[in-house]
């Protein structure tokens, strides 16, 4: 779907991106992860030609993007800018309507689609007549996303979409991201420097450092098979939490004690990771689970001891 081949970009003395190649599959979310200045934004902006690479080529659906007219290219690619990038002197409605106006939609269609997205993103309709600085940071970020989604582009580029938010709001919007139908079938390249966010939202992760790719792979691969010490160091400190997030509850199923539930309402074990189950167990003493017709009760001690056994068995 999106393919970068040997892409480089230099600004004066700074080699921002050094000969990188990767591809993103249709419908996949690829996260560009790395510390400040490692070249994430530059990489993203080359995909919609806001920056032209010096070397290398980029293809979208097999077509070299140099051969596609810039405006046409950008109409098919939603772009959420770092720090939302809303125009301060435009109202929210005007900000959101920029692409639809270029597409010559009539006002009725623009209005309907605006309302639909504001509703999906939990934004009150009254904000339409307000200006960006009259909104909270979280609301501005959501408007930035709404703007990018208006014309339902198949590709979405998001640069630190949750960047300026406090951890609680960030976590909340992250959960919404995971369930938002508008994002489900899109091919997404998302930038973040937040390791947990990358692991939660990315189907695959491209870890960058000083303009180069350190490692690209599935979250679990980076955790369990880091290519070198730099990758390992980058993830250090997040390892325990991330490994609990990547281990699914069903992979421990056989190690759970065999209690029979007494017809209590049970949760599908397939929808949990060890981490999310622990989260629930903070509030509840026991959770009732089902998996393939079997039912089990689980408490925190049972979960921890199953995890121990699982690790001893070296299943993963
Ligand atoms: N227009 C520019 N002119 C000069 N140098 C630039 C320009 N844009 C980026 N750079 C430099 O290129 C490098 C990569 O910048 P880039 O914005 O891609 O980093 P980033 O990974 O997005 O960082 P951050 O997480 O801080 O947003 C940095 O050293 C930056 O200073
Ligand atoms: Mg950046």
UniProtKB/TrEMBL annotation:
InterPro entries: AAA+_ATPase, ABC_transporter-like_ATP-bd, ABC_transporter-like_CS, P-loop_NTPase. The keyword Cytoplasm does not apply. Pfam families: ABC_tran. GO terms for molecular function: ATP binding; ATP hydrolysis activity. It comes from the Bacteria. Keywords: ATP-binding, Nucleotide-binding, Transport. One of its GO terms (biological process) is quaternary ammonium group transport. Belongs to the ABC transporter superfamily. This is Glycine/betaine ABC transporter ATP-binding protein.
